[in-house]
Amino acid sequence: MHESHQILSITPGGSLRGETEVPGDKSISHRAVMFGALAKGTTRVHRFLPGQDCLSTIDCFRKLGVSIEMPGPTEVLVHGKGLEGLQEPADVLDVGNSGTTMRLITGILSGQSFFSVLTGDGSIRRRPMARVTEPLIEMGASIRGREGANKAPLAIYGTEQPLKAIHYQSPVASAQVKSAILLAGLFADGKTRVTEPLLSRDHTERMLSSFGAKLNRLDRGLTAEIESFPSLHGQEIEVPGDISSAAFLLVAASIVPGSEVTLRNIGINPTRDGILDVLREMGANLHVENERLVAGEPVADITVQSASLKGTTIEGAIIPRLIDELPIIAVAALFAEGTTIIKDAAELRVKETDRIAVLAEELRKLGVTVEETPDGMIIPGNQQVKGGTVDSHGDHRIAMSLAIAGLLAADETVIRDAASIDVSFPGFAATLQSLRN
Ligand code: S3P
């Protein structure tokens, strides 16, 4: 196996054995920096994910006048400025490839009195932003952007008035939308509420509360309500391992015969652990042990042994709990007995890439059959992956999914544009290699 700047090649064969950790959770790492910046005092973050996306968040907050140190590769010290301490940036804020940075910062900047401009890479500039700018404009924010404030670059003019507190009924189950509105709600004239159709990841609710925000959760968590201008205080945050990164290894060890892998310190927040339910449903051999609560987030060690999987149908309320894991679940489905159907997942089309189209296109290059549907995929099981050359389209999760498919291919699999893996899982190739024998 060889990872250069652009290419990852996977030679099939062997099994996966041993134990490892995975890098810190991406969603939690972003939030630790953002909330730390808005709090008074110092926030210490341990096991921070030093992936490109989270480094973009650090870069943006430094440009907003926040002093952020990295005393070690995964240790971050954020010297918070308080809710009203951010400064007008001297330049455009570049979020790189990070949708979470873009959407959550838009919520924060909507409540500031100064002017700012947000942009990002080609993928970010294609992704829909109206889902956050519409409700924020309803709250009184002054935002302009391409296609009627739907596409970056976005210019946020700033307001001297507090924003208007609203009750927003979100049409999508999106933690980025929910979080952007709750963060704007910190700068509103009353209680801001967001209701979503299905529960999305709740890291914002958990972590903002621990910083001191007055946040209530109603309707089984579907509605979150926040009071404005709380005093937020710096925290010590231990970031759990990212279950979305662990997912690649959980699937790899399930499908490669003779494997047994233990992953330590993995976040198993119930709004994120749909992958465990689906793998169990498919017949995987999973043991979740040593469950504990770390900085308000449930964490466990997970051991997985290879098993014969069977196809399943994935739809409805579980989708937001595994949205980022669907590409690697599709790979697992290739090796299962029977067909797997993924429905209700149209959101996959507006991720870093159109993950339905891109995954189907690239998996076909490896010699398998995958049927694309408007909101998902139909994946026949018991397929033989041939191997070949594929392209990540600059999407980290597509690159890693194709790499795992390559473990069971007849020939070598070469993934182009594999540098994107650093967005969420720096060291992926080395970690995978360390488990192979
Ligand atoms: C994220 C929310 C999800 C997820 C993304 C991270 C977050 O996006 O896909 O990788 O940190 O809030 P949506 O909120 O758009 O579903």
Automatic annotation (TrEMBL):
Residue numbers binding phosphoenolpyruvate: K26, G99, R127, Q176, R355, R397
A Pfam family assignment: EPSP_synthase
Catalytic activity: 3-phosphoshikimate + phosphoenolpyruvate = 5-O-(1-carboxyvinyl)-3-phosphoshikimate + phosphate
GO biological process, one term: chorismate biosynthetic process
Associated pathway: Metabolic intermediate biosynthesis; chorismate biosynthesis; chorismate from D-erythrose 4-phosphate and phosphoenolpyruvate: step 6/7
Disordered as annotated region, ranges: 1-24
InterPro entries: Enolpyruvate_Tfrase_dom (IPR001986), Enolpyruvate_Tfrase_sf (IPR036968), EPSP_synthase (IPR006264), EPSP_synthase_CS (IPR023193), RNA3'P_cycl/enolpyr_Trfase_a/b (IPR013792)
Keywords, sorted A to Z: Amino-acid biosynthesis, Aromatic amino acid biosynthesis, Cytoplasm, Transferase
Localization: Cytoplasm
Primary subcellular site in the record, as a coarse category: cytoplasm
Oxidoreductase in keyword set: no
CC terms in the record's Gene Ontology section: cytoplasm
Family (UniProt): Belongs to the EPSP synthase family.
Record's protein name: 3-phosphoshikimate 1-carboxyvinyltransferase
